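Quick one: C-alpha cells for this chain, please?
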Amino acid sequence: MSTRPERKGRSWLLLFLLIPFIVLLWPPFYNFREPSFIGIPFFYWFQLLWIIITAIITALVYFAGA
C-alpha cells in the first residue's frame, strides 16, 4: 500500500509553471525603456511584475493540486 496521494490527471497543471520561464527566457521581447512606470523603465518593472505573477501561478497550481 502506498501512502502517497493519487495525482493522476493533475500533471497538466504543472505546465502552467512553464509560463513565467518562457516569457522571461527571451529578453529582446521586453528590452525596452518605454513605457516607464513611476520612473522605472519597462525592462525592470516587467520583470518585477512577473515575480508577482509567478507567485500567483505557483499558488494556484499548489492549491489546485491539493
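DSSP finds two helices and no strands in the chain.
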